[in-house]
């Protein structure tokens, strides 16, 4: 009899620890050979990539376990890792290991073959599920669970929930019955999990537990709508880690169409295989639990551009040991998001994802214009970041830049890098949505404000700060001050509450900041943090007095840089009037967008700090002295890389 006690809980643990030492059982004579591509089996190497999430490209997140005593305890640091993308060394922006200080996020979908042959495994997972959820909570992992079962049909037993009692009850209701006529609709169960809606800033993980082959489209039955290559592509595009706890051999015939190990092979580092007969199932569940709770979350921002659909190879090295995997580029010139694979489920009908091509997304290009100040026209100041190693440390000189205005090459009059001996000026207005849904972001801001102000001082920047909050009204928390202690106290007073009735009065908060008055010789910057849409004039409410085009015009006239940390999905409908990304688009190079769900908010604040303290300030005189209102285009080149933006002048 099969040694089936390969506990489901162990499978879940295997995701975290990848410490399995079992190898694939030799195939029997009644099994057809499949491809020769090696399988990723947890525990067989020191460094193991358990997943790659690139749905927020150019932000790439990889999940790695290191099977050494130090690695399992989380004692490794950023300096111990090297990450290569297509052979090129990347700069790691953040690294986290689940512990009391670092809270990580996981969306864990459990797929279970509920046929009669799985009765022992179902009994084991019922015993282990509470231990699993308790251990994930104690590891400081913010986890959502879902449960999908399958035979010749797919059944959603539990949609996404963070309530551990609900997932436990769903597991308790599993019942092994019937279905002894392998194969089963395993691919369709995976696809059902994929369209359930993973959080963009969480690790996406599917644990698939079965002792059978899979149906596939055109296999002579009507059960399945998918093939292994299609499902592999969907897993890669969705940045989903996949752990198969399945058979190494079956009583029927394995081939490239029915053998789910082929799916694991196609996923590279994002797929792992555990032989369901390699150990007691409870032991397997322990391994999976260890994988989940002993994973390093490593983020970086790639400077590279790839065509849609391109498969990119990622390699992670710790000492002499490496592992590699792949991810797929889903979209390059718009807001990175997960492609719809099927009609969206009823639960997600209100999560409308609106694409906005042409938006300037921070870190997506080598050269980023972060602002253009023309308030002292004809003298123009433009603010530029260069996302290369030499660019970020200020090693570039005036000769490395070319500046064009309306297509005409300009003579650079002044050239400064922040974080240099020459003092620069910045007026930074922080606009914060302090509704209840932003409670975590507000806590992160409180923790990071000292680091931000200290870094600005050390970069030799003379900075003034102001703070404005908004819900359905605008509140000035702090007018301009150059005292870091005062802005810190203002941020400490923030309290997230109420306001779950999107939209909010975001445009009016921006207009209030513009009323404060910026210093003519300073960079004018507004940092806008929200997870909502905006009210606008004549939207059927009395809350707002402005429209996006009006506010865009005012920002351009004031020479204000605008950084939006905002959503790509909302619990409502995006349109041209309420989507703040339209404001970013209207500003050209003076607007930047960061997806608020693309990373932990603390990491996003680190990126913003880099923008502020790693900026080239380039001054020139515009040759155009025409009176009247005019919009001009500025284009900046650094070698073969460029960015462009606009400014508005009004001369009386």
Instruction: Look at the structure and give the mean pLDDT.
Output: 79
Number of strands: 28
How big a fraction of the residues is strand?
25-35%
Assigned CATH superfamily of the largest domain: von Willebrand factor, type A domain
> In angstroms, what separates the terminal alpha carbons?
91 Å
Total domain modules: 3
Any idea of the CATH class of the largest domain?
Alpha Beta
Quaternary: single chain
Subcellular location: Secreted
Domain VWFA: 107-288, 427-608
GO molecular function, one term: protein serine/threonine kinase activity
InterPro entries: HMCN1-like_VWA (IPR056861), Thr-specific_kinase-like (IPR052969), VWF_A (IPR002035), vWFA_dom_sf (IPR036465)
Description of the structure:
With 652 residues, the chain is an alpha/beta fold. The chain folds into 3 domains: 219 residues, Rossmann fold; 87 residues, Immunoglobulin-like (Sandwich); 189 residues, Rossmann fold (3-Layer(aba) Sandwich). Helix content is 23%, strand content 31%. The chain has a 6-stranded mixed beta sheet with strand order 8-7-6-9-10-11, with helices on both faces. Strand 17 and strand 18 form a beta hairpin. The longest helix has 20 residues. 52% of the residues are buried.
